[in-house]
Write a structure and sequence with these properties.
Chain lengths: ~325, ~325, ~500
């Protein structure tokens, strides 16, 4: 049994992760065809641009993935993001180290909001969908209180430049790698990660296997809050300002990215690598539309259609699996 | 079978009545507080104005209530309203002759949106929230494209004066429409096969199937109703404000869910009553009005909405234990 | 030759019934001890007590000579008693490796799972017990037989001494049964004790060392397999009196009312054919899980048959959905009230009128006055104990809920009435009323087909008995041929007169 041939191992890994594999094939095809049709696509500047704009979505999608695997959904990721941007704008003072308090406050806030979500859903025995809709409103209100309109500049310019690739152009890519690898380690390598898949797969079996389902879920929501808040910190540094409405499209977009990446909404399965591919696909589509000069209005339709198509494909795969 | 008193608490009827009584009770309390804070709140004119403003929410809540009873949530309402709002103002273009054409177009949009939602949810087994979210985003895009960011046109005068003017000197046109819809709603839920089927599908979809109910048709009708209510509201809102805005529909997703939940519609499905929803709408309206009166910014109003939903679901809607 | 588990005078009562009555016997270390008896004999109750899921009312259990005092299955597992349930608990989306080591509670959440170490442990176990499964396969993609092996490995990771297997062969194809038995032999070689629940005679005689038969909650016998025979065991399982009262059986007409011809559904239901004459009640007998539910679901339009045809008065029936079945005169009372027939928070009235709403309409609207009259009539006719029509149906007792459901089904004026476990969880009085109702309907020309896992009930009710085993009809008995030993033998796959 130890000596399973390498080729068998490769074959098996491919067939188990066929969804992810297919998504990556499509992603690579998209990258290549973008390069062919839009001459500007492969310019370093464009690629870096693409990376920076994709970063907040990636972080939000990491958050969303954790929750979807537990079988739930988090519609408050956008509000937490907005909250984080205005918190950073409010607290990040000039000077070295001035950003520390701001970032801690933002991430801490995200963790607290996540914990509240988790507690209400587990101990209050409520459905994640309606709870996160309600908390989304509350958190959005908090963001509006801190900063009623967009445009409050972040004082600590160096911090912004550092994080969003102004001073160190490789920073965004590093953050993406850190986030994806971090999520991967959490989900595949830790006891908690394994429990998340168990809880999402079959809660009753998880309970009878001795797993503390409530604790696992609460931790998931806390982590999701932190990821979303981090997304907001990054978003703020990209805009060099805070904006209480910046997060509005993120719940939808993050769900789209996760579903494209092959994660099923029913929970219990999904890989962060698929989600990464989903984010890349969405970013490329965005980028192409921009390069082609198509107005942002069409992007909404494209987003919506992509989500619906991804859901349809997911549903068909689901039916195939059951049969 | 003759111990009527202590067993009464188990009546299915009572289960529906209690939340409604609570909602109306809270409404009365709230209005009293409002009257104390700002005398003149309970003046007939002011109340009528309040109802006139919120009639549109009332219409939309009928659809949302049906959707929630079947166990889902309709998040396409916001952008459905916005799309129909901007389209209506441009189609009517201040011309009474266009009203009929506009109405027909708006109805068709509502039906298509509803069918898309219903069929997607039934056949693809996509959770209602997500499906309607996706459809809503497409509608959002359509709204932007149609207006290119700048809504044009304005209401036909007949519509404006109907909505904003007093009919028979009694009350405003929008209120009349709401009352008519309310009557139809209550009658349909109580006295038709369709109404029963909605409750059945929400209470136990599998049992409904075993009992011979056409679950697909029920779901599609539910979402079509919601779609049509939203699209018609979008058109009527042009009459109300005179023109269209790209942010018209924005509060309606949250507000409709909050009003339904406050009005006793169980988020887990199977229970709900339009009379309660009316109380929910009026309650949220009164709450909003009070908050504006005491100069609370939009941020606080948002938070209050969220808290109200949370409190209601924690109090009343425990997840069914497995 | 020491007893590892000893039951002494175990009694357990649930409301109204005695599930276990003074049961005493012992299980020796290192043996394969078969626990036999039909559904409801008390086997699972007894084992649930052993596992800490229930608590016995009187008596005691000795485990390794010491009295067993546990309240929770986790305690049982720590002591070395574990069970492989019929419904597998392995998670389909996880790898075999992850599933086997899922329940190591001592681990902290942040700890990195040491898969290398786990892999080594797993491979050692596989060698030791002869259970070979690829650790990296996704469990859900494996055949059920292999998933079962994963479940066994999962249990073995906790080092149990007593392993209980609940009808493990019911999900296995024939080839895999022998593989399972080899695994069991390996487990025994390694010092484990196996408690094996089964009613399949072949298996009992192949793998068992001893067999204990329970009947109606009482211990009947414990025998060495070498010293007994199939007939012997069947005799132990039967010999009951008709506890309940059944209405007198009726006269059967010559005309065939309802015909089931060659119905198949995958491999769960294989070529079932039978017919129902006027005035006849046909009972389907057999132990649970042999295709009876699937058959009834096909006959009621809930599943689509892969083959075969059903005829009512000679005319083939359109059964593509429950609605078309109902419209064609087929009524079905399902086995799981809560999930399949009740609308819990809705009232008795709404529940009862759900299937027949269109019959009480006035100008397109529901005629509530007629509906209330209809429900009142039914409540009186079936003696439904409720405080009123508007009572939430969850508040009614099981028996009364069932009456409402039967009322709902009858309101569509069916000509064929299918019952699946109609008296499960119902009091004696209501049972009798339901039996009377069935007989009345049969006399009125309704084809009545009943499946019950309670053999005595089938015997008491039916004019004709169809015995199903593994999806097939193994015996058809009419009138005076109907006898407990015949049915039991066919239900366990034995031929009458089988000596082991």
């Amino acid at each position: 049994m130890n000596n399973v041939a390498f080729s068998t191992k490769v074959k098996r890994t491919l067939s188990q992760n066929s969804a992810t594999a297919w998504i990556w094939v499509i992603t690579v095809l998209m990258i290549i065809s973008s390069g062919i049709f839009e001459g500007d696509f492969f310019r370093i500047r464009n690629i870096l641009n693409l990376t920076v704009t994709a970063l907040p979505l990636l972080l939000c999608s990491c958050a969303q993935q954790l929750i979807i695997i537990t079988g739930g959904i988090d519609l408050s990721v956008g509000s937490v993001l907005s909250f984080a941007t205005v918190t950073v704008a409010a607290l990040a003072k000039a000077g070295s180290g001035g950003w520390v308090c701001a970032v801690i406050a933002a991430l801490g806030g995200g963790a607290v909001f996540g914990m509240i979500n988790g507690l209400i859903i587990t101990k209050g025995k409520q459905q994640p969908i309606i709870v996160t809709i309600a908390t989304s409103e509350i958190i959005a209100g908090c963001a509006l209180i801190i900063q009623p309109t967009a445009g409050h500049l972040i004082e600590n310019m160096e911090f912004c430049a550092a994080l969003s690739g102004g001073s160190n152009k490789w920073m965004p890519i590093l953050i993406i790698i850190a986030a994806v690898v971090g999520s991967w380690v959490l989900l595949s390598k830790t006891v908690w990660g394994r429990s998340v898949y168990a809880v999402g797969g079959n809660e009753i079996s998880a309970v009878s296997s001795g797993i503390n389902v409530d604790a696992v879920k609460i931790i998931a929501y806390i982590l999701a809050g932190v990821f979303s808040a981090f997304a907001g910190v990054v978003q703020g540094t990209i805009m060099y300002s805070g904006d209480p409405n910046s997060g509005n499209m993120f719940p939808m977009k993050s769900i789209t990215a996760v579903v494209i990446g092959g994660t099923m909404l029913s929970g219990g399965r999904g890989s962060i690598w698929g989600t990464l591919a989903g984010v890349i696909i969405l970013a490329i589509i965005n980028n192409i539309l921009n390069l082609m000069g198509i107005s942002t209005f069409y992007q909404y339709i494209v987003q919506g259609v992509i989500l619906l198509v991804a859901l349809m494909i997911s549903a068909m795969r689901n039916r195939q699996n059951i049969n | 079978m003759n111990t009527n008193f202590n067993v009464r608490k188990n009546l299915a009827f009572r289960n529906n009545v209690m939340p409604i009584v609570m909602a109306y009770g809270a409404l009365i309390i709230l209005c009293t507080i409002a009257q104390i804070l700002k005398p003149g709140f309970l003046e007939l004119n002011h109340l009528q104005n309040l109802i006139k403003q919120n009639a549109f929410l009332g219409l939309v809540c009928l659809g949302q209530m049906l959707v929630i009873i079947t166990g889902g949530t309709d998040l396409s309402i916001t952008y459905n309203i916005t799309l129909c709002n901007v389209m209506s103002s441009q189609i009517m273009a201040q011309n009474n002759d266009n009203i009929l054409k506009c109405l027909v177009i708006v109805l068709v949009i509502g039906i298509i949106v509803g069918l898309a939602n219903g069929l997607g949810i039934y056949y693809l087994k996509i959770p209602a929230m997500i499906m309607t979210l996706g459809v809503g985003t497409v509608l959002q895009g359509l709204g932007y494209i149609y207006t290119q960011g700048a809504p044009k046109g304005s209401a036909a005068p007949a519509l404006s004066s109907f909505i904003n003017g007093k009919v028979f000197g009694l009350t405003y046109g929008s209120v009349i429409i709401w009352i008519a819809i309310a009557v139809i709603a209550v009658v349909v839920m109580r006295y038709t096969q369709f109404g029963r089927s909605v409750y059945a599908v929400g209470a136990n979809a599998e049992a409904a199937r075993y009992s011979g109910i056409d679950t697909c048709r029920t779901l599609c009708l539910v979402y079509v109703t919601s779609g049509v209510m939203a699209s018609v509201a979008g058109m009527l809102l042009v009459g109300y404000s005179g023109t269209a805005y790209l942010y018209t529909g924005n509060p309606y997703n949250m507000d409709s869910i909050a009003a339904c939940v406050v009005g006793g519609t169980l988020i887990t499905g199977g229970q709900g009553n339009y009379i309660g929803v009316i109380a929910g709408v009026l309650l949220m309206a009164a709450l909003n009005s009070i908050l504006i009166m005491i100069n609370m910014p939009e941020a606080i109003r948002k938070m209050v909405k969220g808290f109200v939903i949370l409190i209601m679901i924690l109090l009343v809607h425990r997840k069914k234990s497995q | 030759m020491s007893m590892i588990v000893e039951f002494r005078n175990i009694t357990k009562e649930f409301v109204g019934t005695r599930a276990l009555d003074d049961v005493s016997f012992g299980i020796e270390k290192g043996e394969v001890h078969v626990l036999a008896g039909e559904n409801g004999a008390g086997k699972s109750t007894l084992l649930k007590i052993l596992l800490g899921l229930y608590h016995h009312d009187s008596g005691e259990i000795l485990y390794k000579g010491e009295p067993l005092k546990i309240n929770h299955p986790n305690q049982a597992i720590k002591l070395g008693i574990a069970m492989v349930y019929q419904e597998l608990t392995v998670l389909p989306n996880m790898t075999v490796l992850d599933n086997v080591f899922l329940s190591n509670e001592s681990e902290r959440y942040g700890k990195l799972v040491n898969r290398k170490e786990q892999l080594n442990t797993l491979l050692e176990m596989e060698e030791k017990y002869g259970i070979y499964v690829d650790p990296y396969e996704i469990t859900g993609s494996l055949a059920i037989a292999v998933q079962q092996k994963v479940e066994i490995l999962k249990i073995l990771s906790g080092n149990p001494e007593v392993i209980i297997l609940d009808e493990p062969t019911s999900v296995l194809p024939k080839e895999e049964v022998e593989v399972l038995f080899d695994i069991i032999r390996n487990l025994i070689k390694n010092g484990k004790t196996i408690i094996f629940i089964s009613h399949r005679m072949e298996e009992i005689f192949e793998i068992g060392n001893k067999v204990t038969v329970l009947k109606d909650g009482r211990w009947v016998a414990t025998k060495n397999i070498k010293d007994t025979s199939v007939d012997d065991i069947i005799q132990c399982m039967i010999g009951r009196e008709l506890k309940d009262i059944y209405p007198q059986k009726g006269e059967i007409g010559k005309e065939i009312l309802y015909e089931v011809e060659d119905i198949s559904y995958g491999d769960k239901v294989k070529n079932i054919s039978f017919n129902v004459h006027i005035g006849e009640i046909v009972g389907i007998a057999g132990l649970q899980g042999h295709g009876q539910t699937e058959l009834l679901r096909v006959l009621s339009g809930n599943l689509s048959a892969t083959k075969g045809v059903v005829r009512l008065k000679g005319k083939p029936l359109d059964l593509k959905s429950p609605r078309s079945a109902i419209n064609n005169g087929v009524g079905y009372v399902p086995e799981n009230r809560k999930e399949q027939a009740l609308f819990p928070e809705l009232s008795v009235r709404v529940n009862m009128s759900m299937s027949s709403m269109k019959m009480r309409k006035k100008r397109g609207f529901l005629d509530l006055k007629k509906e209330k009259e209809f429900v009142n009539k039914n409540i009186k006719q079936f003696s439904v104990k409720t405080s009123g029509q508007e009572q939430q149906i969850v508040r009614l007792s099981g028996g009364n809920q069932q009456k409402v459901i039967i009322g709902k089904v009858l309101a569509t004026n069916p000509q064929v009435l299918l019952f699946n476990e109609p008296t499960r969880g119902i009091d004696v009085q209501t049972k009798y009323e339901i039996y009377k109702l069935m007989r009345t309907l049969a006399k009125q020309g309704v084809a009545v087909v009943v499946y019950s896992s309670d053999m005595m009930e089938v015997i008491g009710l039916s004019d004709k008995v169809i015995v199903m085993y593994e999806g097939e009809v193994t015996n058809v008995l009419c009138g005076s041929e109907i006898a407990e030993d015949e049915i039991m033998a066919s239900a366990v796959g034995a031929q009458r007169g089988d000596v082991s």
